[in-house]
Amino acid sequence: MSVSEFCHREVVTIQKDECAQEAAKLMRKHHVGNVIIVAEEKGIQKPVGIVTDRDLVVEIMATELDPTVITVGDIMKPDLAAINKNTDILEVIRYMRRKAVRRVPVVDDNMQLFGIVTLDDLLQVLSQEFSSLVKLVEREISKEIQQRP
């Protein structure tokens, strides 16, 4: 199963020069824990960074900086980990573990933002798959009982 099958297509984005307070407002409005910083390049929105709710707390609130002055570009993680939309779910898990991240932007072959996948998404998909396996075992036992009373 590729990540394109279960990633969130609606991604909250912001420009690098927007203030941290605007990022916090977007997170609250959309009930998300991150915003993806995008840069437009030849008509394509390419992800260049990410800011999480934790970044806002640790970098802005805890240091008592003014969130209306500090931009998301100032606090974004610059070495953005992103994956291609055709990446297999197991490779996504390996990649996130290797990069030690809980959220990863998903891009298409042109590096345009396609979606986002989170640890929560992976847990939900995997739990559904495990549930299917459990049902298979139950069905097999039930079938055997019917065939061999």
UniProtKB/TrEMBL annotation:
SMART domains: CBS. The keyword Membrane does not apply. Pfam families: CBS. Transmembrane segments: none annotated. Residues 7-67, 76-132 form the CBS domain. Keywords: CBS domain. This is CBS domain-containing protein. It comes from Nitrosomonas marina.
